[in-house]
Design a protein that fits this description.
This protein is of the alpha/beta class. Helices cover 34% and strands 27% of the residues.
Length: 508
Amino acid sequence: MNISQLLHRTALAHGERSAVFLGAQPVCDYHTLAGRVARLAAHLRARCGVQPGDRVAIFSANCTQYLEALHAIHWAGAISVPVNYKLHSKELAYVLENSGARAVCVSPELRDSALDAGASPNALLVFGDTDWQAAVSDASPLVMEDRRPDDVASLFYTSGTTGRPKGVMQTHRNLLATTMAYFTDVDDVQAHDAMVYAAPMSHGAGLYNYAHMLRGARHVVPVSGGFDPAELVELAASVGHLSLFAAPTMVHRLVEHVRRVEADVEAFKTIVYGGGPMYVEDLRDALDTMGQKFVQIYGQGECPMTITALAREQIAETGHPRWAERIASVGKAHACVEVRVVDANDCEVPVGELGEVAVRGDAVMAGYWANESSTQSTLRGGWLHTGDVASMDADGFLTLRDRSKDVIISGGSNIYPREVEEVLLMHPQISEVAVVGQRDADWGEVVIAFLVAADGARPEDAELDALCLDHIARFKRPKAYRFVPALPKNSYGKVLKTELRDWLAKAD
């Protein structure tokens, strides 16, 4: 089943319903949206030669055309490759080359970056330009391509903790399971509800479009294209029944704004948070300020948005004797997966003991694109091994204790230390480097680099900034460089990043 069947189904039954909004202004109804998608799919086929199974990248910030591009790619039977629009052109170049993208859909302001990354001008579709408007208006619609459940629908590129980023193969079955799990474990959706895309549509927020497509609900792109607390409060009041996915740092900023201006939050329906730790005190504060509107999810690209969920009802159950422990957890396994905590031999550990989170079910990826060795090491015995360290209580609530992959989550974006370290080591005056995250009130975490200078010759911070900006996205650049005589290491020569984090905590 093609995942875009969800759009087609709603367009047939409820084509008159408003589908896409820019801010509070309606852009099109479901009948129009499906027509534009089918014609854009035909344009991809005729102009770019896109065939079923081909890859098509989307390199764009949030905009109304994003949904058209995403569903047109699926409609044509192709594989979407959503790319973080903050990536450096060199990083984008790797994704395009590795995926073998036949075409790139891009927003106007990123056109030059896509060309710098090697995208062919003849296979570049620019949102909103003359060719785009002609494609969605004049082309003959393409009949939706039939796809099998286990055909790949999307390649989601994770930042590489070791080596290059990996393309997670998400199948139509995976996306459908994620969609159904939204209804069973996160929230019900009605036609009058509205999903606002304040977090990047290339990541988790975009995956929630399918549940709202299925129910014929409304899709709202903020005029700002991103997260602005004041704008969200205004949208909630004007659009109503507003739901969103947000990183914990976004929730913190929204709650601060609501409290400061004493905003009416009645029109917010559901705020799903995930992608990083929500500290217990921050959640208590959010509940006191906005009420019982919160649901937590835990997932990975390898099991998108769908490992565990902490339901609204569980968060609201303040009288439970273990309520404080439960709201510090990431909840219980989604209905479509099994979750367990295992030791180094893949044996389940006793209740309360630490181990690695493993998951299996219909939401788990098919593997990594063109990377059999990583697929074999991550999918073992039918289970996805997440690399996250956690414990599980007797009632099945999972509590994350550490991120063994050392990912830094800053403003909802994942930053993997290895890629930053490798760039800094390109500088001839740097002999060793270790990158860690430091807690930050605004961003959740910020990147801090500990460095050992070669021969005691310390480069200027500006040099290191320039090196980073020439190779990686701006948001991955360290916020501070700390030069030390030597990095702390264990007897095996491994850098002790926990000790570095302790240094930072003591300095604070």
